[in-house]
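Researcher: Please translate sequence to structure tokens.
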Amino acid sequence: MDNKTIYALSTVYGKSGVAVIRVSGNNALDVFKYMTKIETLYLKPRYAYFTDIIDSVNKNTLDKALLIYFKSPNSFTGEDIVEIQCHGSKAVLSSVLDSLSNIKNFRLAEAGEFSKRAFYNQKMDLTEAEGLADLIDAETAEQQKYAIRQMEGNLKNLYENWREELLKVYAYMEAYIDFPEEDIPDSIKESNMNTVFKLIKAIDEHLSSSKNSERLREGFRVVVAGPANAGKSSLLNAVVKRNAVIVSDIAGTTRDAVDVNLDIKGYPVIFTDTAGIRKTDDVIEQQGVEIAFEKIKDADLVLAIFDASKDDISIFEDIKKESENKMLYIANRSDSLSFEQCSRFEKQGCLLVSAKYNKGVDELMEKIGNFIGSKFTSGSNLLITRKRYREALLECVDNLKNFNFDKEIELSAEDIRLAARALGKITGRFEVDEILDKIFGSFCIGK
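Model: Translation complete:
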């Protein structure tokens, strides 16, 4: 990262009433110096200045705008920041950005560079930065809620507290490595082993409770599966309330998996319509059936739909082996059933639906929403929303499980160091100085 002052448009490029251009770096105040007539000597931080914006070279007026100065370190990046709130026409934006490019030591920011500088200046850790990215990308209420919690530092606090406990253990180990003639008291051994045991349990519980949380970013996969002509495509169209896929009475119409995105109770859901499962001599349709089984295997929930007027749930024995505890049986064309037949299917746990007449679809959506919601523990604020978090936590646990006092103390200390480093991979922080602070912090004053 160089020392140049960076600038970029922070709002979407295009026609808008107001646009925000952000400038960050040691020379950010040069915006006032070269593009306004305001003296920088008496600038007030966090005070809005309404002024003419002039070209930094030819001094032509470009716009009338608000400028706000955020003094370091009390800014988003930890550096001096100037925000230009101008009109959002393409002409204004192009001229202001061109003018900024002509100021010495200014350059256009790279993707994510403002947040990167905030990280380097310890204004946020990696989990908070990724929470901010998730908030920007959020499309549903639940994505928004959990992104805000992560951006506020909930995950950082959890992982930093765990790392803090490990650094204390490591400090003890390092101290006894430096003084090998001293035997480690049994009370210290017991205390450290107890700390490690509690951390293993806490991390395992965290991993278990957040098993499905990556789906909050990627989308929960709901696959509509069943025999040909069971009404899969009709059901999907009824769910999304539009003709998303082709519907036909001809068996084998759907030959490939078709994805449709939906928001259910604030959760992002990817509905997948699949080819009808049946034996066929058609090579292309065979490939579609193979893809259907792959989608079923990877699904979070399988909607096993069948024509209730001629089939029952026994036709899903093969699918059931791959999808235990994640199948919802859908008895389609329930409008053609007698009362006794409906009762029999309901006793088998089937949801009665008529995709053609849009009956039972609302209840289906409710069940899907409840199924997804049940994957989260009540009041769970701390979700593992990225694969790299899970991998680092598993690495941490593996090293902690290797820790004991039955081997050379240097090897035991290495187990703790590697475990702490694994947690540091998540937050982006692991400093030798912290360990030294723990060791010497226990000394009395004057030593």
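Researcher: Any highlights?
Model: The first helix runs from residue 30 to 35.
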